[in-house]
Design goal:
205 residues; 9% strand; alpha/beta; globular; 34% helix
């Protein structure tokens, strides 16, 4: 897996200091600055402590199965903002390189909020998931929009089958929306959400 995060700190220097501090007990394999500079913090062959308590498609120890990339951004707490083009250029190149070496399927490149929806919001609704999808590095939002008219319970069952931890309904729905329908992350299960999820699941049916 590849798990994308934002640093959620006021500066790149602060994030690097924290990730290098053994007392903090957090780490990541890479940090990508806003100007596109990439810093390797942990060798990919080693575990980095970036995902915390997480779950994706039955993987309960995400740290042991993933490469973690921290993307410098102040996050929702300190003035969340779009990710600059040089930074996204570097993120795309890095994800492509990692995915090629480790044979990471597009659906296995996810955000921190995807694997820990009840705890995390990053990399958030401003992250350019469509760009990674167009590059074949993340799942695409399906073009065909057929509403399967699931009940809310049916939607949650389908969301769990796609890969999300659906223990807590509202956070799981919002996490899905941040990734696949960022224009509206209010948490309502509507026709558009059902159609997107149905399209994502069709290859597995």
């Amino acid at each position: 897996m590849i798990v994308l995060h934002y640093t959620g700190m006021q500066s790149a220097a602060a994030a690097l200091d924290r990730l290098a501090d053994p007392v903090a007990k957090v780490s990541a394999h890479y940090v990508v600055a806003e100007d596109g500079v990439v810093v390797r913090m942990v060798d990919e062959a080693n575990r980095a402590w970036h995902a915390g308590k997480s779950w994706w498609r039955g993987i309960v120890d995400v740290n042991s199965a993933s490469v973690g990339i921290e993307i410098v951004n102040p996050g929702h707490e300190f003035g969340y903002r779009p990710f600059p083009a040089p930074q996204m250029d570097a993120v795309e190149a890095l994800v492509r390189d990692i995915a090629g070496r480790w044979r990471v399927a597009p659906a296995m490149t996810v955000g921190h909020s995807d694997v820990a929806p009840a705890r995390k919001d990053d990399p958030g609704e401003l992250f350019d998931w469509p760009r990674l999808a167009r590059a074949g590095l993340a799942d695409r939002i399906p073009a065909a929009r057929t509403d399967p008219n699931w009940s809310d319970a049916g939607f949650m069952t389908a969301l769990g089958r796609y890969g999300y931890d659906v223990t807590e309904m509202q956070p799981a729905v919002v996490a899905f929306q941040r990734h696949f329908r960022p224009g509206d992350i209010g948490g309502a299960i509507d026709a558009e959400c059902r159609a997107i999820l149905f399209g994502l699941l069709r290859p597995y049916l």
